[in-house]
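Protein modeling request. Please complete all fields; requests missing the sequence field cannot be processed.
Requester role: graduate student
Desired output: 3D structure, C-alpha cell encoding
Chains: 1
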Amino acid sequence: MNKISRRDFINGTSVGVGVAAAMPLFGAKTHTPEYYPPALTGLRGSHPGANTHAHNLAWQSSFDLSSVRSTNEAYDLVIVGAGLSGLASAYFYRQRFGPESKILILDNHDDFGGHAKRNEHTIDGQRLISYGGSQTLVEPRSASVVMQTLFSDVGIDLKRFDTAFDQGFYKRHGLGATTYFNTGHFGRNALVRHPFCNYYNYLEGLPGAAVSDEEAVAQTPLSDRGKQQLLSVLKGGLHTLNLEDRALERYVETTNYFDYLKQTLGVDDPQVLRMARHSGIDWSSAGAELLTIAEAKECGALGFAPVPVYDLDNPYIHHFPDGNAGVARALVRHLIPSVAPGNNAEALVNMRFSYQQLDQRAHSARIRLNSTVVNVQHQQGTDHRDSVAVSYVHNDTLHGVSAKHVVMACYNMMIPHIVSDLPKAQADALREQMKSPLIYTTVGLRHWRSLQAQGLGLAMCPGNMHQTAFIDFPVSLGGYQFTQSPDDPCVIQMISCPYSDEVGKPRAEQYREARYRMLGRQFSDYETEIREHLSGMLSSDYFDFDRDVASITVNRWAHGYTVAGPGNSVEIGRAPHGRITIANSDSAPAADAIAAMEMGHRAVGELPA
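Delivered output (609 residues):
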C-alpha cells in the first residue's frame, strides 16, 4: 500500500481511491447524469457556498428584488427547505389536497434531506454508507398514527431493524466504551477503558466500563489531586445532600451542575472540570457548565450512574446505514418514483438516486437544489387570499414563482429575513429560537484492527475538537453489509459540539463564537486535527494515518440542534400567516426527526382550503 501525504487529500479523499473523479461535480450548477452529492467528501453539511446568499440576506436585512426573473411557474405548494420536515409536508399536502397537486421544494444545499445527510466512502473500490447528521428514528414504535401511516406508505418497516441492527456486534468483537486523554490538554496520551459518563448508552449493545472506577482513575494522566477529585465525583452523588425528596427535586432543577461539582463535591481541578464540561456532547447542546443538575443527569454527564437511554420497546436501533437519510430517500422516492427503482425503504439502501429526476417539468412534485429562497410574500392587493410570490437565487440568478400555499420548513431564525410581510411580534418570536452548531465527521478506514486490539468501540475525547469517536452503527440492510472483520474497511464517526473557549459564557454567545470559528476553518485545518486525534488515540502497532485513512467527510452544521426560545415564543413564532405556515424542528421544538415530520403535518393542516 502506497503512503499518502497530507497534500494528497483532495476535498477529503486521497488520490487513488477512485472518488477524486467526482470532485468537479462539487457545486455543480446543473444535474448531469454524474451529479451525485452523497459521494462527495471534504467539507459537507453546510458546504462552502450553501449559505452565501442566506448570510448576505441576514446581514443586509433586505434583498434587491428588482431583477427577479419570472419562471412563469405556478404551484399549489412551494416548500422552503428539503429536510425531513419539508419532505413530509409534501407528503401530507398530497394527502389533504390530492396526489396531483403541483409541489415545488426549494433548498439552498446541493442535496436533499437537510441534516439527514447521506455520506458514501469508496475505499479500494468498496462503497461504504454512513450518515453526516440526523442519526436514528427515536422511539418510532410509540409514534402517532399519522407517523405510523407515513412509515407504512413510504415503505419503512420498523420490525426489520430488530435484525438489521447487530446488537451483539460490539461485544462479539470486544469493543467497549473508553476515554482518550490527549497530550495537548492532559500531558500524555492515554486510552482508559472507562467512559466516565453515560454517553455510550445510545449505542445498543456497547459494553460500558471494562475496569472499575478505581482502576480507571489510576490510569488517567490527571494529577494526584485531580484523580482524588474525579473519584469523589464518581463515588459521590446527590444522596450526600441528605435532602427530602421534594427538596431534592427542587434543588436538582434549579441548581447549576458546575456549582454542584464545585460547592458540593469540592471539585476545582481544571482537568476534571474539562471532562465534566465535555461529557454531555450533543445530548446537552451546550457545555455542561450551562446545565442544571437535572439536565446534566438526563444527558448522562460525569458523575451520574449509567441508565438505559430508551425503553425495551423502543431501543435505539431504528437506524438505516445512512441514518435518517434513509427516511429522506424513502420520502423522495414516494414523491418522485422515477428517482430510483424499489418499492420500499430497504430496497433503496443500495440504490444510486438519479438526481436528474428531481426537477422535471412532467412531475407533479419537484425538488430544486442549490436554490436559496430570499423573499416570500403574499401578492399585493389580494388580502392574503390568492397567492404567494416566492423569490430564490439559483445559479446566481434571481428567479420568481407563485404558489397558492407556502410552507416554511427552514430555520426559524431565517424566516423573519425571508417572509417580508410577517407581523413584527411573530418575527421577533422567531428570532428568539437558537440552533447549536455541530460537526459530524465520517472517516473511511481501510481496516479497524487497532480499534479491536484496544477494545475501542467508542471513545470520549475531552481534550479534542471532536469530543467523541466511535465505530459506526452496525447495520446491514437492503443488501448492504456492515463491516464484519477488523481487516475490512469501515467508517468511524467523530462528533464535535463546539463551545466557546470561555467557560460560562451565555449560550447564544457561545454558539455564535463557535459557529464563526467552525465556518472559518479550511478542510486542511480539520484534517490536521483529525490526524493528530487518531494518531494519538490509536496504537501505532496497527494504525498509520497516511496508510489507513482513505477519506474524510466533515459535515459542518452551523445551525444544528434546535434550542427553544423563552416563554411562549415557539407558539407565537409558528402561528400560520395567511397562506404561509411554518414547519421545522424548531417549531416543535425538538431536535428529533419524527417531531420535524409531525410539524409538517401540523403546518399543512393549518393552510387555508
